[in-house]
Amino acid sequence: MKNPLKFIQDVKQEAFKVTWPTAKETVQGALMVFAMAVLASIFFLLLDQVLKFFLEIILKVSL
User: Fold this and answer.
1) Cα–Cα nearest to 45, from 26, 30, 20, 53
2) ∠ CA 16-19-22 to the nearest 5 degrees?
3) What DSSP letter does each residue of 26-42 carry, written as one string?
4) Cβ distance 20 to 26 under 8 Å?
5) Cα separation, 16 vs 42, whole angstroms
6) Could you tell me the CA-to-CA distances from 44 to 35, 50, 59 in Å, in that order?
7) What is the per-residue pLDDT across 18-55, written as a single tens digit (0 to 9) for each?
8) What DSSP assignment string belongs to the chain?
9) Domain residues of the chain, as ranges?
């Protein structure tokens, strides 16, 4: 990189080539992330409750 001005011009040209998502695509992506986070949290809540149930059974048997 010998010429910083040329570098900045190249970066600007490349930035114009980027296809940015539309507002609709951005909202859809955000909703999908939110939905997956909710599903994952419900899954781990249920898994935690099942493991807690079995652990309590094991601890009662061992006492």
Assistant:
1) 53
2) 125
3) HHHHHHHHHHHHHHHHH
4) no
5) 41
6) 14, 10, 22
7) 998 999 999 999 999 999 999 999 999 999 999 999 99
8) ---HHHHHHHHHHHHHH--PPPHHHHHHHHHHHHHHHHHHHHHHHHHHHHHHHHHHHHHHHH-
9) 24-63
Read off the amino acid at residue 60.
K
Dump pLDDT digits (tens) for 6-28: 999 999 999 999 998 999 999 99
What's the token pair of residue 33?
Answer: 């992330």
HSE of 16, CA atoms in CB hemisphere, 13 A: 5
Q: Which two tokens stand for residue 58?
A: 């094991």
